[in-house]
Amino acid sequence: MKSTIMDYNLSIHNVFWRAEKLYPDSQIVSRVHEGKVRYTYSKFSERVRRLSEYLREQGVDSSSVVGTIAWNTHRHLELYFSVPLLGGVLHTINVRFHPSEMEYVINFAGDKLVFYDVDVEEVKKVRAEKSKFVRLDDEFDREVNSHPPLDYFPEVDEREGAVMCFTSGTTGHPKGVVYSHRSIFIHSLSLLAKEIVGISSQDIVMPVVPMFHISAWDVPFASLMTGAKLVLPGPRPGPDHLASLIREEGVTVAIGAPTVWINLLDYLRREKIDLPSLKVVVTGGAEPPKGLIKGLRELGIRTYHAWGMTETEAITTVNQSENIEELSRQGKVMPGIEVKIVDPSGNEIPWDGKSWGELVIRGAWVTGEYFNSPEKTRDSFLTLEGKRWFRTGDVVVLDPKGSIKVVDRAKDLIKSGGEWISSVDLENAIMTYEPVLEAAVVGVPDLKWGERPVALVVLRQEYRGKVGKEDVLKYLESMNRFPKWWLPDEVIFVDSIPKTSTGKLDKKVLRTTIKGRMRA
Amino acid sequence: MKSTIMDYNLSIHNVFWRAEKLYPDSQIVSRVHEGKVRYTYSKFSERVRRLSEYLREQGVDSSSVVGTIAWNTHRHLELYFSVPLLGGVLHTINVRFHPSEMEYVINFAGDKLVFYDVDVEEVKKVRAEKSKFVRLDDEFDREVNSHPPLDYFPEVDEREGAVMCFTSGTTGHPKGVVYSHRSIFIHSLSLLAKEIVGISSQDIVMPVVPMFHISAWDVPFASLMTGAKLVLPGPRPGPDHLASLIREEGVTVAIGAPTVWINLLDYLRREKIDLPSLKVVVTGGAEPPKGLIKGLRELGIRTYHAWGMTETEAITTVNQSENIEELSRQGKVMPGIEVKIVDPSGNEIPWDGKSWGELVIRGAWVTGEYFNSPEKTRDSFLTLEGKRWFRTGDVVVLDPKGSIKVVDRAKDLIKSGGEWISSVDLENAIMTYEPVLEAAVVGVPDLKWGERPVALVVLRQEYRGKVGKEDVLKYLESMNRFPKWWLPDEVIFVDSIPKTSTGKLDKKVLRTTIKGRMRA
């Protein structure tokens, strides 16, 4: 029997209606090149309406894709709303992409317009004849403000695209996914749940996760949905910028990758600064090191551990455990998401807390395909019990109650003497060693064993030159956690560890670096 | 551009998957006629699977409607899941319906089976030849347990019906609405938001709102979605039962109409009992009297004020304000809901904190029609800007930020000398008078003025015979809140105030009572 409930589109239109009508006085603070901009949701809504009229004049409609190469700023936020409100798709482009990658995604997505931040020099090298490039600056502001506010937005079906994002492809071209109004709405609503992030109108929220990638975990949408004060940290935010913003604006919840908080914590210690307003740091993209969790805790800040990827729009698990061991797990999936683990042949593996397998996932904000890429799509999905599951490429263990523990990326596992070694496990162990700031472990080819683990280590300033390979290996041995053959053959000390354009350890570059260093 | 996100049904299947797989050890406690039953989600899931096999054997499938006339018990909860999991519609029937109403809705909905609680004597008088009646007792339990657990549930489209409910029609036949899997999922997810109810796995939740009406605000679904311990208070729960359950089970959040909490508070005071575990009472169906809010606060319990109706599935606003004046408002609508106010011609009225108008509403869990009743549907909806809005029949004022204040039901407003008097305002004012336990105000026909207000008052035991009409009127005057002509012409003292089958003041019966009393 059909229900009698009306068809109501779960869309960004409802989020905008709430921001404009229910929370006109809530604030948005944006760090930009010129300084700090502060305005109310009311003023923001007016700007969105003017920008929409400007975009409409430029020919943007429900068939358009509009690109952005921009930092977390109020101008970017306005585009986050205007484009989807008009029924178009906002294509966020990674600021750290190589010009050739920018060129590829702009042409592949068919961007009609591309808005770029003033410091994105790479744009000059991009050839995209069909796209008009617009610089986000004062002149742009004046142009927008000269337009009357658009007073009517078209109704958009909830399954239409709203935001498009490409993976930071380590092999081949980046792959695209298009999030829908519906998926953004449901995921944003989920972020308000107490056991997810629990964003409320009383919060002051700072997404350090970039708006140019996986829509900053939908945090901007979730914040405006519930009237929270939103603090956008702008271009290339360093630990000094973040600390100032948190203190000046009273940030209560901040969201970003572990490396952001590692650097911030280091800065706070050096400068002897505390952050009394900050209650929660939500981190994802990699397991938060225990030293980081403890360091934040000493400042009165709780760490939430989240997990997700480009193909799952944003996050699908959050672990809020107070227990530091338990917090190393990614945790249980959010409502609207389902998971299984499978072996390489696609057979289900039990949730026994021991068996490794690839995590497969389906749900209300999981992609069902790659944009215009049937071949890539074919390799990344499997069918179980008549349903489609996305293959995450993450090797995990599930405990009997479904709490996920990521062992490693399938392609980063190290196969030594026919047995698997988890690079993630070793990295996390090395990072619990007091002198270590950051660490990465990769497998290098070995004639006898197939592959052997090698560690790259960044020491804290005060320990540089004072700690050697043997100290690290002795520390690992003293943990009594790993079999002897897991211990790295080499420990290479470096000044920093290369990251991908989305802030993750770039293991491809790492392997090359190591090859060079070991030969030398 | 279509999004690439997969089609994933938001359904009770996902809630069940979570309960069974992610929270096997969470508890359900159920007060039944035989005593208290306690089991885990794991055991619950097994029972649901056995019950589903039993239902399947009885011919229940995706075309079936299955009725229940039952209290808040574990058996009812199992039916809440089994029937929708099979794709059928669970038709919850009001235990307090007159046999003729039961008969009407059972036949009108076409119930294949009707499960009823042992104490529902009215069932014997119901004639419904096409329905098979099954008593929820030990024998039923044995029958269910003799069936093997069903291991596969069909995929159900999210817009299919899951739960059906009829209004307690004060004029004419009850009107039916059918909630969808989707609406139940989204509304349940909303209940986890910090600023809605904020249910979490750490909570112990007791829905006193009946499962036989508007699916107990979806609280059973929301609780199982997040692994909360669920306490079901069973048949005809009195204040003594509620107090015992809260103390014994450590209830942290309880949900019910104001009258439930008025009686509980009265009982707690008389018996000198406190409820240390209880943090929050969520109340709806009527404005919570200030005395109630204060009384609960003295016990360390916060009051959340919610608003909704059968046609909006459950609740659409929650006000958590700490300010007692502000808390009398219904508050802002939840994400996924939109409201306007209109005059009798359907023109929009401004949100100025002064202008009265009828609240119209649309959203993800608002009905778009009445079940099989085109005529009733026609009168209850209007179209504004090309969109359908449900006419709530509530006269409200909206402040400039969209916070709703219900003035009265349109049909309960009193028109005196061409001006409107709010019966709700007067009731709430009288209920702030210390000697008053409950009060109701209705309009009675008056030759000179058209209508005049008359109050019915229940005094606290200790004040009976000691407080008279003049005391009440003097108190109202001393408030300096109402013009003289608003004051009731009569104050009639009664032992109790008649309620509808859903626990609201029954103003139809009240008017008849008053007519009798005033003639006498």
UniProtKB/TrEMBL annotation, chains A, B:
What the entry lists under InterPro entries is as follows:
AMP-bd_C, AMP-bd_C_sf, AMP-binding_CS, AMP-dep_synth/lig_dom, ANL_N_sf, ATP-dep_AMP-bd_enzyme
Q: CDD domains attached here?
A: ttLC_FACS_AlkK_like (cd12119)
A Pfam family that the UniProt record links to this protein = AMP-binding
Keyword annotations: Ligase
Q: Which residues form the AMP-dependent synthetase/ligase domain?
A: 18-371
Q: Which residues form the AMP-binding enzyme C-terminal domain?
A: 426-504
Entry keyword annotation includes Nucleotide-binding: no
Which PROSITE patterns does the record cross-reference, listed alphabetically? AMP_BINDING
A single MF term (Gene Ontology): ligase activity, forming carbon-sulfur bonds
Which family would the database say this protein is a member of?
Answer: Belongs to the ATP-dependent AMP-binding enzyme family.
Q: What is this protein called?
A: Acyl-CoA synthetase (AMP-forming)/AMP-acid ligase II
Q: Which organism is it from?
A: Metallosphaera yellowstonensis MK1
Identify the taxonomic lineage of the organism of origin. Answer: Archaea, Thermoproteota, Thermoprotei, Sulfolobales, Sulfolobaceae
